[in-house]
Amino acid sequence: MEQSAKRRCAQAIGEQDLPAAGAVRRVDVYGGQARVVLDHDTVFLAHFPTGWKVTAAGCRPRPQRPYQCELKGG
Fold it and tell me: What domain of life does the UniProt record list for this protein's source (predicted)?
């Protein structure tokens, strides 16, 4: 995000048009990866030595295809 927005992540993320997430509905953990399903969003996380970090947000499911995410980390 910092590279594409050409500013710090904390600044750039506030400018994104993400849905109001709402309450947590379900959390699925698969080893070092997790999916958090909220009322109006789905967020993906990965476990790093420093803890869990968001790798994708603003994600919407698509039939028979991977999620479409507004924010993706690498």
Answer: Bacteria
Residue 37: both structure tokens together:
């399903």
- Rounded to two decimals, the pTM is 0.76
- The tokens describing 50, both together, are 């420093």
Number of residues written out for the chain = 74
Question: Distance between CA 25 and CA 38 in Å, rounded?
Answer: 5
If 0-12 CB within 10 Å is exposed, 13-18 middle and 19+ buried, where does residue 36 land?
A: buried
Nearest 5 degrees, angle CA 36-CA 15-CA 63? 40
Contact by Cβ (8 Å): 67, 74: no
Q: Is 18 helix (H, G, I), strand (E, B) or coil?
A: coil
pLDDT tens across 11-51, in order?
Answer: 656 666 676 788 999 999 999 999 999 998 899 999 999 99
